[in-house]
Amino acid sequence: PGLVTAKAEVGYNQAAIFVKKGNPKGVPADLSAFTDDGFRPIIGSAERGSIGKETKKILTKFGNYDQVKEKATITSHSQSLVNAIKADKADVSINWYAVSTWKENLEGIETLRISEAFAAKKKLVLTVLSDSKHPGQAKAFLDFVASEKGHAVFKQYGLAD
User: Fold this and answer.
1) Strands (E), 14-146
2) Beta-carbon neighbour count of residue 56 at 10 Å?
3) Which among 3, 60, 102, 145 would be 20 to 30 A from 153, CA to CA?
4) For 46, which DSSP code?
5) Which SS3 state, helix, strand or coil, does residue 48 take?
6) Is the full-model pTM beyond 0.85?
7) Dihedral over Cα of 63, 45, 116, 22: its sign
8) Are residues 70 and 61 in contact, defined by beta-carbon separation less than 8 angstroms?
9) Residue 1 confidence (pLDDT)
10) Nearest Cα residue to 22 out of 127, 111, 100, 89
11) What is the spatial distance between Cα 80 and Cα 38, in angstroms, rounded to a whole number?
């Protein structure tokens, strides 16, 4: 048998533009905001994390990655992107939409959707591994998240249609 004994696609995540709650700077839902002189961007490192790699793909496709990289503060992880915006050290970032749903980020962050032409939805797939210490519980959890009730939870957090 293989390493994976069961799997289910449970939703998706997608990169989004992050701004301070209420969008006080009036950042448009447009990737050109990252090169606008009126906004301070912060992006993830393309060499150190998944959102940095995704940001590079998005901005390269849009055509302004090199300009943004010259201007932006660059950091290594997702929560530091959020913290910079919450602390008014940056005005705009790209991060995984799911990060905006975390309890500690609900009050300080707002998201602006990026067109799927630039930011593709990424499938969220859960698996049960053959070496699981609790295979029955793992399979029960997988069955729940793949169910209608589980799907409703992912939808509540913007991770499913």
Assistant:
1) 15-20, 41-44, 73-75, 92-96, 109-113, 122-129
2) 19
3) 3
4) T
5) coil
6) yes
7) negative
8) no
9) 59
10) 111
11) 21
